[in-house]
Amino acid sequence: MEITYFVSDCQIFGRFAAETLIPRFSVIVPLILLAVCERRIKDYRYGVFLYYMVAHASMWATIWAIWFLPNKDFAREGFIIMHFAFLAIGLGMPVVYHIPIHSLVLLNIIISNMWNHYEHFNMMISLAVPVFIGIIVIMLILENSYADQYLIKKELEKTSITDNLTEAFNRNKINEIVSHDEAEQLNIPQSANVVVLMIDIDKFKRVNDTYGHDAGDKILVFLAEQIKRCIRSSDMLIRWGGEEFVVFLVGAETEVGLRIAEHIRHSVETFENEVCPITISIGVSRYDGGNYRDAVRKADRALYYAKGHGRNLVVHYDDIADEDLKGYTETE
After folding, report:
1. How far, in Å, CA of 318 to CA of 299, rounded?
2. Crossing angle of helices 121-161/95-116, nearest 10°?
3. Closest residue by Cα to residue 226 from 251, 190, 196, 201
4. What's the confidence (pLDDT) of residue 332?
5. What is the per-residue pLDDT across 179-228, written as a single tens digit (0 to 9) for each?
6. What is the four-CA torsion angle of 307, 311, 315, 318, rounded to 10 degrees?
7. CA quadruple 243, 199, 263, 321: dihedral sign
8. At a CB cut-off of 8 Å and minimum separation 6, what does 240 contact?
9. pTM (2 decimals)?
């Protein structure tokens, strides 16, 4: 839009303003630089000076053009308009970054007066300072409002997919990581290498009946904490229902998955939970790239086998035969 001011230059001259043609179009240079460099910027903090450079370059182009104008009084309006260019860019920046860079507008006016000798220089500064302060106030109000909305939005997003008790994911998380079609494939990085763990507390009903539901809740929190301690940040822990948890070990080979499962089982058995000793059974399966439900179902069958063969076991689905699953009923 800086280029369109060439029209007002022609109006001031009363003819084609050849003198200001190059100054007005010079703003294309920083725009080209921005277009070339911007795609390489992954963090807005590294691009702050580049983004604001365009606004400053526009102001410098204006000052350059003013030097040729026979009537420089209209510079006051032009400089006020420039504040809103900085506001537009500032909406994408924290105010703490914006204030020092925007304040250089005043310095630009002061320096340009050394060459252009504005007749109403004092008036320019008098008008520019309150506009600058007003824009900063506006940005502070907007930033606080945006921050509140952002935090509320993130909290709602977290609540919708998080189990309030254990702070593990709830089953709504599945909607985020599974394709929305009949295939229902896992749609996560390294989905070709995923090991599924189905974890269940042994005789959990006895814990609730003996110690109460509050104590049962403590046990669930304890189990979730132990699982989180044994898995990686890239893995996903989901409270599947009641005392059942499902873990997706992302990018893991089967052997690694079995070692992690055993580590979880051992830590739950040996660590103090402040209620009573407990054990867990774990079913393990490998996701083969098809429907995720098949892998979860296999892990559930392996868990059923572990429950029927003494509990406190880690069982891999591939290690059991079909005849060993007679009477199996899905717990999903």
Report:
1. 10
2. 160
3. 201
4. 41
5. 888 888 888 887 778 999 999 999 999 999 999 999 999 999 999 999 99
6. -30
7. positive
8. 171, 198, 246, 332
9. 0.59
Q: Which residues contact 171 (CB under 8 A, 6 or more apart)?
A: 238, 239, 240, 241
The residue from 77, 243, 255, 269 that is catalytic is: 243
Which stretches of the chain are DSSP H helices?
A: 5-13, 21-25, 28-38, 44-66, 75-90, 95-116, 121-161, 174-177, 204-211, 213-230, 254-270, 292-308
Q: Which two tokens stand for residue 166?
A: 């254990």
Residue by residue, DSSP assigns 60-111 as HHHHHHHTT-S--TTHHHHHHHHHHHHHHHHTTS-HHHHHHHHHHHHHHHHH
The residue count of the chain comes to: 332
Q: Look up 243 and say whether it is catalytic.
A: yes
Q: Which residues contact 57 (CB under 8 A, 6 or more apart)?
A: 26, 27, 29, 30
d(CA 195, CA 185): 14
- Residue pLDDT, tens place only, 116-146: 898 889 988 998 999 999 999 999 998 888 8
Q: How far is CA 167 from CA 3, 227, 279, in A?
A: 55, 12, 21
What would the pLDDT profile of 288-325 be if each residue is shown by its tens digit? 888 999 999 999 999 999 998 999 999 999 888 665 66
Nearest residue to 57 via CA among 101, 23, 100, 27: 27
Q: 């900085």: which residue's tokens?
A: 86
pLDDT digits (tens, 9 = 90+) for 35-61: 888 888 888 777 888 888 888 988 899
Amino acid in position 30: P
DSSP SS3 for 261:
helix
Dihedral over Cα of 283, 289, 293, 297: its sign: negative
User: Of 204, 202, 196, 195, which Cα lies nearest the Cα of 309?
Assistant: 202
